[in-house]
Predict the 3D structure of the following.
Amino acid sequence: MNIHCANCGPELAAWAAGELEPGLRDAVAAHLADCPACRRELERELVLRSTLAGLPSTACPAVVVDRIQGVITREQSVGHRRRRLAAGGALAAAALAGALLLRPGAGDDARVPVALLESGSAVSAPATATPLPSPVDPAAHAAAVAAAGYTPEQVAAARRDLIRTVALAAAVLDRTGRQTISDVFSERVPAAVAGSLRPLDDPTRGG
Amino acid sequence: MKARNLLLPVALAALLTVPALGEDLTKLPGYVDLDWVAVPAGATEIQDIRLDPLLAGLAAGGSDTDPALNQALAMVKSVRVKSFSLAGVDEASVAADVKKLQDRLNKGTWQRLIYMKEGEETVTVSTLSHAGKLAGLMVLTYEPGDSATFINVVGDLDLTTLLRLATQMHGGELTGLMSGAEGVQADAGGHRDSGTGNE
């Protein structure tokens, strides 16, 4: 095979990655011996790889992997517009599901230099199971109470009852122990329950 | 007059922020009818709490500085509680009702999460999943000669949030929350509903 400046780009990248096919090595070496431009290009490739390898890395969130895969899939499906859109939609849905199921500390094996992550599109933060409630506007709340036909005292009493009930349910769950749920009933825990049970931050929590 | 004219649209707009306005509670997944559970004659410390979606939404909207508590309250669509002390009463009907409810939960789409027996006391926690989420929680505690408690919570529930509440509140604060409500303790032989909006 004849190697020319116009077609040796992929070979130079492969050379820098240590992945050049053995049959091409002599041809590329012969070209590099006569081409200062390609030697400079190879040198840039090697410096780039060395720089990236030295950057701090982080676990690649599943949603990023999914999105990249989505782009690859779409690029490979040129000419099949409908299927490409469906795949993108399915992958987007999968990415969303992956984002919703993301757990702290449960990263992928793929590690991506932080610089690439920061330069790319936004990465969604793991979704929490229960979003924090928005701040309540006191005036709007009072208006809603009045419009619903309740007095502030009735709503205050209801709030106390609500708090008591939630606290009681929390106390029962706490008493019986999360460990009990995980260990004894792990095989019978419904998927939705398992999904709603994530490691607590407190390392001293026990069963 | 002008202020009054403004009040109605503001109130209507505010009502839009209240979730589940007009929802039929009995149709919500995770709802358990507890009206048939009879309070035995002579029972004391009776609590009969009913918070429908509208009132629960308004109640959850009150201000509170504790984020864990606010997060837990925001999950709830409705609450039904029946609780009473059994000291010195004929418990035959209570035992039958407890078994009847457990049998209903075991047969249907509910799934038993916890069954714990400590001495004479039994604690059963059951959950109902709907569309991949936890939609209902049923807590049943029964100790012959002591007390019986039936709690049904409907909503977009997350057990981690409840457990986090328990963890962050610690035992004393949680106990304080459970006993802090006033106005629903009953005299002997009587009880008071809380949340009378739909009665």
